[in-house]
Amino acid sequence: MITGFFTDTTLCIGCKACEVACKQWNELPSDGFEFTGDSYDNTGSLSGTTWRHVGFIEQTSVEDNTVVERWLMHSDVCKHCANAGCMEACPTGAIVRNEFGAVFVQPDICNGCGYCVVSCPFGVVD
After folding, report:
1. In terms of pTM, does the model score above 0.85?
2. CA distance linking residue 40 with residue 10, whole number of Å
3. pLDDT value of residue 12
């Protein structure tokens, strides 16, 4: 059975609850809080400990001589590739598929070589 995660961006309010749920479900450590000053997006991007990222795309336009600002929410996540380059590149076998078919990095087996980082076409592994 193939599963997926669909985000309806017309309904997303950017609360980032899905980011928190992903961290909790996968037992990932907190990245801490960092206010960048550029946006309300404090996560920044996908990383080795942030597997779901809700990005804030901020747009400003002028309509009828009025400045209009709006936010678009963009949900990004590890793609759990069918042919995961990160899995193939890992010399220690630390990257495996779990019982749900998701790609998982076993931190106790990973030696930190970084081969998986350059093999991920989406920049998820960090």
Report:
1. no
2. 18
3. 82
